Amino acid sequence: MSITVHPLFERLAPYIKIEMYARDGGHQKPRRRIELNSQLMDKDLLQAALAVTVACCACGQAISPFRPRQKGSGERAGPPRHVYVAVACDLATNLGCSRGTAARDEYIRIENRLKQLAEDAR
User: Fold this and answer.
1) Please, which residues bridge with residue 36 across strands?
2) One pLDDT digit (tens) per residue for the chain, 122 residues
């Protein structure tokens, strides 16, 4: 199931941001990073997001699409400050899932759904 049809997606949409990340693809073809602005979120909503599971867009295995980014010492108590959105298995589980066309298509679907929700809000 796509994260875009998950019941929580519309509540999370205002906190999802798409960042251009030129370090991988350069300025000609930058990669997009999809981040969850967790610092602005209510703690309960953040915990609900971190508990979400969906199917990997490539192989169908259950994954957590909202993942804390490994920053800092990791020994701080409290909610994670940096959360990213992933649509496929993590790299340690299956590198191919995150590098294929299914992942690319799902990221495009997320972008399009966010644009649609923003237009509907106007």
Assistant:
1) 16, 83
2) 789 999 999 999 999 999 877 666 566 666 678 999 998 999 999 999 999 999 999 999 999 999 998 765 455 556 788 899 999 999 989 989 988 899 989 999 999 999 999 999 88
* CA nearest neighbour of 63 among 94, 34, 39: 94
Long-range contacts of 40-43 (CB under 8 A, 24+ apart): 40/15, 41/15, 43/79
> Which residue type is seen at 121?
A
The CA-atom distances, in angstroms, between 75 and each of 30, 37, 48, 50, 78 are 32, 21, 21, 18, 9
pTM: 0.84
- As a three-state string, the secondary structure of the chain is CCHHHCCCHHHHHHHEEEEEEHHHHCCCCCEEEEEECHHHCCHHHHHHHHHCCEECCCCCCEECCEEECCCCCCCCCCCCCCEEECCCCCCCCCHHHHHCHHHHHHHHHHHHHHHHHHHHHC
